[in-house]
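Input/output pair, single chain:
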Amino acid sequence: MLETNKTVVKEFILFAFADLQQIQNLLVFVFLLNYILCILGNMAIIIIIRVDPSLHTVMYFFIGVFSVLEIMLVTVIVPKLLANVISGNNIISFTECFTQMYIFISSGSTECYLLAVMAFDRHLAINNPLHYQAIMTPAFYISLAVLPWIMAFSIILAPVITTAQLDYCGPNVIDHFYCDVAPLQNLACSDVFISNIATLIASMLIIILAFITIIGFYIQIIMTVSRIKSKEGKQKAFSTCSSHLIIAGLFYGTGTIVYVKPKGGHYDKYLTFMYTVITPMSNPFIYTFRNRDIKKAFRNLINNLIKPVQM
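Output:
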């Protein structure tokens, strides 16, 4: 990802939310608070799953991996954003810009595939419960957790490299709070056709394919659950899927709007803020409030921490 001979731009300026100067202090507070809540919340999920034996199951293993991704996703973006807003220096180097873009989009793409894997896990547990343990061996579910990383980080190479190889002659102001594909394509002074095609294909291979896969699995889950006669049985089956559905809905709702139409509108950064900051911060609370096992494990952890202090 090196600059081409025709590229004269050596650094970019992240416009971020400079048009909201009157509320800069409030923005810093909101970003910092959301970042802290996201890190603490997802770290709590990881620790609870790790220390409580009752949560050593495939479903919670995937939730733990998802929390790691959430921490990674926000850490790539928010510290740099906070530093820029506080210092007033919005400059980011060419190499740093494309490195940030690659890691961020790859992490988000990994989440797309992981959500599909989690849907497959719930589908298998509900539609084929007798063979679930035999199929979901440690080697198999670990492979399922690793595969999204390999696929996402490989596929995203194409749009990132083709965008980095465009000519940037100026201007160099990115109308976003991090380096993203569409805003950078809008700054290029060379033909962006190949870069646009690479972005579109990657979007379809990741967002659309994963979304269709999730919908397909949940249609089958709903059909199976609808045949369960007891009300308690239906509630138990849906309770294992509801949190996942909410997270997937939040993530895909904004992600699809931004990345399936890589034009780069002024309001894309506000939609992006939803799934780069708000959604990762919301996930631990969604899993906590809607998951009886995690709430019980959390109470047990707190009690175990309090007992030695009281003694």
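The chain has a mean pLDDT of 84. The beta strands are 11-14, 91-93, 173-174.
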